Amino acid sequence: MGSGKNNSSADKAAFVFLKGLALFLVAVPRNVAFGAGSALGWVLWVFLRIERKRLKITMNNLKILYPDATDKELRNIVRRVCRHFGRFHSESMRGPILKRSDFEGRVKFEGLDNFISACKEGKGVILATAHFGHFELGACALALMGYPVFSVIREVDNVYVDELLDNVRRSTGLGIIKKESASKEIIKHLREGHVVTIHTDLHAAFNKIFIKFFGKWAATFITPAVLNLRTKAPVLPMFCFRNDADDSYTIRFYPQVKIKPTGDISADVRQITTYIAGVLENVIREAPEQWFWLHRRWKEEPDDKELEAIKKQEALIDSGADKAGVTSA
């Protein structure tokens, strides 16, 4: 049932709890599930108050965006983040009963033509996304609309919970690609004209470069850029916003990223990766409570050798600015 994963009694207990919660959330009306999500958010906030180390990480992260904010102001934002992700989890578990008709009145699309145009190229589509808003709804909505969509997902250490979450995702027609063995499978799907979503916002321990994210060095995944350059599949940033005012969602597709090659692959990868991160920065500024600030995004900085390589890449990009810039399609 798993390879090297922990199958302890604690894992089984966690699975039983989540399975029971999922059955409850599927059985009750949406407004009740929404209220349960708010309660989950409150539990998460209480956990952070107890687990002070994680709260400190979260508040330090927020200080990067709000350097002049007081601790009280930062804690208020953290509470809103907790409430958002509590609601997100309660809604995500309702995947098995989600139908296209359920979201047609509550989901708005922006830039859908950007996505449709990319699909028409016939090379597959890479959607660069993040743990922002209702970050699973975008892919699930496209799957329910009939598009062949596959999401790159990291395996959960708890084998039972991992299987439960994957089954919830698959219930909407979404395909799953496990991150641990993703490269060949992603390329296969792109060559078959499929859509692949990749989360690029968390700390990258491998397949990474260092870029400035909110003005601070951050190790960032280069997977979308490398796949774009290797397969010529168009890459588009996509994010799903929650609109609390009218209980709706907005799935926004940005124009696909296009560059004129500099002749240096590393410089081209840097251009694409930096552009995607810049779009994400603007998205987070729009609704900061909808991003996963609890994660240690800024774990490390580039060493001297890496800084020297970055300078060379940026010099190459700057010297060819008139002929090699990132543009919209």
From TrEMBL:
<keyword id="KW-0012">Acyltransferase</keyword>
<protein>
    <recommendedName>
        <fullName>Lipid A biosynthesis lauroyl acyltransferase</fullName>
    </recommendedName>
</protein>
<dbReference type="GO" id="GO:0008610">
    <property type="term" value="P:lipid biosynthetic process"/>
</dbReference>
<keyword id="KW-0472">Membrane</keyword>
<keyword id="KW-0808">Transferase</keyword>
<dbReference type="GO" id="GO:1901137">
    <property type="term" value="P:carbohydrate derivative biosynthetic process"/>
</dbReference>
<feature type="transmembrane region" description="Helical">
    <location>
        <begin position="20"/>
        <end position="48"/>
    </location>
</feature>
<dbReference type="GO" id="GO:0016746">
    <property type="term" value="F:acyltransferase activity"/>
</dbReference>
<dbReference type="Pfam" id="PF03279">
    <property type="entry name" value="Lip_A_acyltrans"/>
</dbReference>
<dbReference type="InterPro" id="IPR004960">
    <property type="entry name" value="LipA_acyltrans"/>
</dbReference>
<keyword id="KW-1003">Cell membrane</keyword>
<keyword id="KW-1133">Transmembrane helix</keyword>
<keyword id="KW-0997">Cell inner membrane</keyword>
<dbReference type="GO" id="GO:0005886">
    <property type="term" value="C:plasma membrane"/>
</dbReference>
<keyword id="KW-0812">Transmembrane</keyword>
